[in-house]
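$ run holo --ligand "zinc ion" --emit C-alpha cells
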Amino acid sequence: MIRPGKIVCVGRNYLEHAKELGNEVPKEPLLFLKPPSSVIGMNDTIVLPPQSKQVEYEGEIGIRIGRKIFHASEDEVRAAISGICAVNDITARDLQKTDGQWTRAKGFDTFCAVGPVGTPPADLDSLTVVTRVNGAERQRGVASDMAFRIPMLLAYITTIMTLEPGDLIATGTPAGVGRLSPGDVVEVEVDGLSVISNAVVAG
Ligand code: ZN
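-- output --
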C-alpha cells in the first residue's frame, strides 16, 4: 500500500468501548495522530516493544482520502473518500495510561496495520468491523454506533487540518479490546472489503 502522509485517529468514538476503559464519550471528537512509520501491511509482523507489558489490538474502519479537502461539507467529504480499509490501531495500553498524551503508546513501529483499500458503500453507516485473535471473534462494531459518524468526523477534521490524497483516518474502535501475546495472529476485517492479518512477535 501507499504510505499515508498522515494518520488521523479518533479516540472513544463508541460508547461501549469508552465505558470498558472507564471513560466517557467526549463532547467533540478526540483526535490524535499516528506516525506514518508505524504502518505495516498484510502478513508483516507486529513487534511488541520491550517498554510495554500490555499491547492491545484495536480493530477500526479506515478511510482513505482521494482528494484534497479543507473546511469541507459532509457531501464534499463523501466525494473525497477514495476507499475503505481495515486498520489495527495497536496500542501500548499501559503507556497510554501513564503518558500525558499518546504519541509513544500509539507510535511504535509496526503499530498501524492497514489492509488493502476497498470500494466505499453508498451507506457508510452500514460498515462493520470485526477483529479476530487466533480465529476467535473479539470485537464487532457497526459504524452507525459511532458517537461521531464518518462524514461528520471527516468534516470536523477538515476544520483543523487539510486532508490530502493518501491520508488515512482511523475512526475509533468498538468494545472488546484486549491484549496481544507473542505467537498470536490478529485479523481485522471490514465487511469483506478489506482484511488485514498479522502475527505478533516479541521485540
Ligand atoms: Zn484506536
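-- notes --
The helical segments are 15-20, 74-80, 93-98, 103-107, 150-157.
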